[in-house]
Amino acid sequence: MHLQKPLRLSAALLISVTLVQVGTVSVSQAASVRVIDGDTLDIDGKTIRLHGIDAPEAGQTCRRPNGKTWPCGKQAIEALETLVSDDNVTCDDRGADGYGRTIGVCTIGSEDINAKLVSMGLAWAFRKYSMDYAEIEDTAHRDALGVWQAETITPWDFRAEKWAFAEQETPHGCPIKGNISEGGQIYHAPWSPWYTKTKISVEKGERWFCSEAEAVAAGWRAPRWGR
């Protein structure tokens, strides 16, 4: 089962970015930056997965103390767009994950963007992989900020639940939908807001994938989240 964060694109933002490879010479360049989701950036075609955090999925909602819900996934995306919209962004390079994405900490001046999202309650500390933001999360939790207003499912459990349900309903237990549209070859994971609306026509060349990595390797991309 592959439950890593999907590659998804949101509004394009044009800013100056510095990519810094840890232990190597840094490289500065003007780049096109897209916010993919609440914890992922696309910098001039290079995908940066923010180290040590996990934001709610784009279509995920969270609870308020009164029992009502709010679009926490959408707000995490909007918060990241705001954070990177006006200033120079610096991202280090901590290696690649299994999807070819660069893991990194991104900063604006001295401000750690990863930490900022956790402190706002718009991302969890991804303790499975790093404890770097655990104390910041504890403070946000104590202050009932963002996702900590009320009991809310974590993004990794949200993805796992969506995946488990979808794999029972799809051919050969491979629930990722490879759809062909005007935008090209696009895949939809079970947690995509458009997942249930997407139909697969094998006759048109559309297909099913067993993992996001398989879809990416075959040349398909995740949907663009746009405004």
Automatic annotation (TrEMBL):
UniProt xrefs under SUPFAM superfamilies: Staphylococcal nuclease
UniProt keyword list: Signal
Record's keyword annotation contains Glycoprotein: no
Keyword field contains Signal: yes
Signal peptide: 1-30
Chain ranges of the TNase-like domain: 26-150
PROSITE patterns: TNASE_3
Pfam families assigned: SNase
Coiled-coil stretches noted in the UniProt entry, renumbered to this chain: none
Family matches, as PANTHER family: BLR1266 PROTEIN, EBNA2 BINDING PROTEIN P100
Name listed for the protein in its UniProt record: Thermonuclease family protein
Organism: Rhizobium helianthi
